[in-house]
Specification:
One of its GO terms (biological process) is histidyl-tRNA aminoacylation. The protein is an alpha+beta fold. The chain has helices at residues 18-35, 49-56, 61-66, 86-95, 139-156, 171-187, 194-199, 216-220, 231-246, 291-294, 309-318, 340-352, 370-379, 390-394, 422-429, and strands at residues 39-40, 46-48, 69-71, 78-81, 104-113, 125-134, 162-167, 252-253, 265-272, 281-287, 302-308, 330-333, 357-359, 384-387, 397-402, 415-418. The protein folds into 2 domains: 18-169 and 229-318, BirA Bifunctional Protein, domain 2 (2-Layer Sandwich); 330-429, Anticodon-binding domain (Rossmann fold, 3-Layer(aba) Sandwich), CATH 3.40.50.800. It contains 15 helices and 16 strands. The strands form 3 sheets. Strands 1-5-6-11-10-9-7-8 form an 8-stranded mixed sheet, sandwiched between helices. The protein has a 5-stranded mixed sheet with strand order 13-12-14-15-16, sandwiched between helices. The chain has a 3-stranded antiparallel sheet with strand order 2-4-3.
Amino acid sequence: MTDKITAVKGMNDIVAPDSAHWEWLEARVRDLFARYGYRNIRTPIVEPLALFVRGLGEVTDIVEKEMYAFEDRLNGEQLALRPEGTAGVVRAVVEHSLLYDGPKRYYYMGPMFRHERPQRGRYRQFHQVGVEALGLAGPEADAELIAMAADLWRELGLQDIALELNSLGQPVERQAHRQALIAYFEQHRDQLDEDARRRLYTNPLRILDTKNPAMQALVEAAPKLLDHLGPASLAHFEAVRRLLDAQGIAYRVNPRLVRGLDYYHHTVFEFVTTSLGAQGTVCAGGRYDGLMAEVGGKPAPGVGWAMGVERILELLKAQQRLPAAPVPDAYAIVPDPQAWPQVMPVLRALRAAGLQVLMHAAGPDGLGSMKSQFKKADASGARYALIFGEAELAAGQVAVKPLREGLSGPVTAQTLLPVAEAAEWAARLRPAGAT
């Protein structure tokens, strides 16, 4: 017997009925983004390795430990599976000169890849939805993006999501803060764990993001970046806060919020929840005004965020906000295979009229008895059974039988309806609110 091939650990299949929840969420997201004027962009899953080394930072955890990088065996090119979406979007904007006629607003959806230890809410192939506003330098762009995420939580009915906010200022200010951090942590080197010691001279800002309980008091007393910001950076941050206040969006300034990628400047933010345990960040982003130049383009501002689809779905499930799994409107029961030439045109007409119809088809043992077909119709969750019996078809009719109690509408008991008028009565059988 041939060994069974299974999926790569941490890379999961998404099958029905769960896939219906993904489609539902994606549709809600697309609708909201369209109202904000964002348009879809789709970039390759495989990108040049240099894009992420230069864009994200060579000493970030993603580049150092998590990225799927490999050499193209045909031409020796150094490639990587994308670990995040922003760098690829910026690369596309630079490559195609998309800012030649003004700022752009884009959104993307798709899989990302990081070699992590798989656990709830954290997978090696995971999915992100992200938005990027490019060519917009003002604080109003930051505030609009944050408001868009807040609107999404409201429209999804989600609770227990809090906004944390900080500013990383400009590179020269971060450099001054970096030196202050190094000097501070050098004085307390004996209290640093192995990871913090490794980062002390390469990326000391990331020490502030440690999850080690033994280091929390030390980190809390560390120099704060906000104390190193100049007038322009402070003015930008205060303007973002005023715009959030004006929209009634609550937030907490968290001076330890640094994000894990080197391209961030000025505003950074996270939406966090206590409902998912350790994987509490559901959406995060910020401003990245230096990234365009890092990937070889003319300097231009940018700001964006990304949310983890798996985590949002976990949160929707935990808060019982997911919709019921979709079911067909009708299930077609066909006792005699000789009837297919008459049945199939009717089913096409019903579907063209908007009815969702599941057709019973033959299995290895044939069509099965009427009783077994009715069992399958009931198990499908369909609201109605359409019975294409010999007598009904001879009279140019189909029997429509309700399968659920309490159905409202024109058919509340088994009824014969004319096949020739399928489109007319299909419209009447659709549930209220269906399109």
